[in-house]
Amino acid sequence: MAPAKSGDTVKVHYTGTLVNGDTFDSSRDREPLEFTIGENKLITDFEENVIGMNIGDTKTINIPAARAYGERNKEMVIEVPKNEFPPDIKPQKGMRLEVRQPNGQAVPIVITEVTETSVIIDANHPLAGENLTFVIELVAIVG
User: What's the CA dihedral at 100, 127, 40, 2 to 10 degrees?
Assistant: First the structure.
């Protein structure tokens, strides 16, 4: 069978780790990830590195933060008055929420600090600013 190429739908197992070795995601305990190379639904470098792999091949790739989820943006960390939270939400550090933008798009946020009068929220992607390593195994080329 020919190696994977752009336009192929493939199935891969992967494990993603941070520089310190912590695993942030893995498909090993579930079904392989299925995607079509070139549709840009995943990190571009992840998709592009599957090109040329044969079924059964394993590859380790390193993706710098700027090419993964971007660098952390200080402007996406804001202070919100505590009284602007709905009364049924009791803000706590580490709590994950979604905020709806005026256009209806949902933006995931995490609460990083709570004071008597305000709440600090961070809308950066949780992996922003992180260099990522993936071990990818090509399991199947399905089309």
Answer: -150
Phi, psi of 38 (to 5 degrees): 100, -10
Domain 9-69+127-141: top CATH class: alpha beta
Instruction: Assign domain 74-122 to its CATH architecture.
Output: Beta Barrel (2.40)
- Residue span(s) of the chain under CATH 3.10.50.40 come to 9-69+127-141
> How deeply is 87 buried, as exposed, middle or buried, from its count of CB atoms within 10 A (0-12, 13-18, 19+)?
exposed
Residue 2 CA, chain-centre distance (Å), reads: 30
Sign, Cα dihedral of 31, 37, 43, 45: positive
Residues of the chain with CATH 2.40.10.330: 74-122
Query: How many Å apart are CA 138 and CA 3, to the nearest integer?
Result: 10
Q: What confidence tens digit (pLDDT) does each residue in 40-91 have? A: 999 999 999 999 999 999 999 999 999 999 999 999 999 999 999 888 989 9
Mean pLDDT of the chain: 95
Q: What is the pTM of this model?
A: 0.83
Write the pLDDT tens digit of every residue in 12-22.
Answer: 999 999 999 99
